[in-house]
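Hi,

I'm pasting everything inline rather than attaching a file, because the server keeps stripping attachments. The sequence lines come first, and each chain or strand is labelled.
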Amino acid sequence: MSTLVFVEHHDRAPQESALGVLGKAASLEGDVAAVVCGEHAREVAAELGRYGAQRVFAADAPALAAPLPQPRVDVITALIGEHGFDTVLLGSSVLAADIAAALAARLEAGLNYGLVDLRLDGDRLVGVQPILGDSAYANVGWTATPRLALFRSGVLEPRDVGGSADVINVSPSVHEWSQAARLLEQDRGESEGPSIEEADIIVAGGRGLGAPEHFSIVEDLAQALGGAVGATRAVVDAGWYPYSTQVGQTGKTVTPKLYVACGISGAIQHKVGMQNASVIVAINKDRNAPIFDYCDLGVVGDLHQIMPKLTELIRQRTSG
Amino acid sequence: MKIAVCVKEVPDTTAPRRVDPETLRLDRSGEATLNPGDTSAVEEALRLKEASANGEVVVVSMAPESALNSLRKALAMGADRALLVADEAAAGSDILPTSRVLAAVISREAPDLVLLGQQASDSDGALLWGALAERLEMPLVSQATSLTVEDGTATVRRQTEFGYDVIETPLPCVIAVSDAINEPRYPSLKGIMGARKKPQETLGLDALGIAPSAAGAAGSGTQVLSLDAPPSRGETTVIEDDGTAAEKLVEFLSEGKYL
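And the predicted assembly:
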């Protein structure tokens, strides 16, 4: 195997999910290279040996400054053409998904997505893809090379193997049409309060709260438990709660010890962000909500009745 | 402005889904519906059309002929035409042939804008637009939470893991919209009545110059080898609140030493 891993970074920090993918690649046979694009690419590239890369290609050019997919497709295509990688792996993100899909079409390459594992059965590469809301696990293979794989985020832990990598600067040529989309501005949605990525306990609210002002009952329970507040994409997009608290596909992936989901249906977009919590508790009035299929304890009922009472009981216990 | 909207028919989202153990493909024999995420793309296209003097909204899809039923929901919402590539050789297509076929249909239509919805509810994929933009050599923006089009330029606000980006791109381009971009309208009775009379064209692969070997499982780059049961998360307990749920939750949290 000759593997190339795309490592996305923002503000000099490589994405955890990409580092996890790098570790997975290093655990299989063959050589492992990584590619980093954009500003500070060289700095980030220099760190990647620790996580399993033997060679790292650093591409820094004005066309790669904005986190947009199409110029990166040109860079990766050129690297595959020059070095003959037979496998290209990416940790899932909005950017990486767009890159992977475009690469598949550009190279007529097989793309498996949403993978939680990758293994070699003899000399056959097999990916593991949870399907149908994780009710089954498909073993998937490739019939066209290079083999492209997009991994679910938050699944593979980075492993510090203490190696060092050769950093190779590359000067990519980027198609004119790849540069047609331009980034005008970025709004990072800076966070206030405890970070949900660090929290041991998260109490999260969704549409089922009914109205933005009802987030106070989530905040009260979070405070009583000493936890942080999370939110679904639906309520963030509706302006009920800040983006920095968003858990799920285009938000954060969290792994607390306890996750209390309040008025959250638990569709796949949210599930991918929180399913690795040690214990999941759900309160929802809809018995058919998907979250009841994978929580540890689910309560079917009115959260406006249950949560204030729960908060009060917890306060009584912890103060007494 | 001419807008092409890529849509997909999916199994009824409220019914249990299963994989056919013989073909290892999703069992599509039950009730089917228009993919919920795609209704946001149709809605956005209709809003853009309504805001411009002369516009046309064409829904395109690749599916068995029976999918025209689901495409009519988009026509009932207000789309002008439906274009369906229905060909037995297309069964079992992954992203490679799907994007190949849709790019061929879209090229024929030469729209100013190509829209897609956030995610297919059956495959949980959220990828097609990347492959489509590549084949059409058009700029791409995904996860759009707002979209304005003016003087041949689209301005898109989109959400990523790091916050919001504002991206500008010339037309024609491919834009995948998020469910949050709008509240899709319900078809009116008049819309539903009128949908049957709107143009609905069904094409085979030969009309697009695509060989059967370049479509379906034969033209795909991936395969499902086998299925396993998911690893167990342990016991799931679900209780109905009989007025004592709060006490039971405290007990559970206390046993887990979270208090």
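The radius of gyration of chain A is 21 Å.

If the labels don't parse on your end, tell me and I'll reformat.
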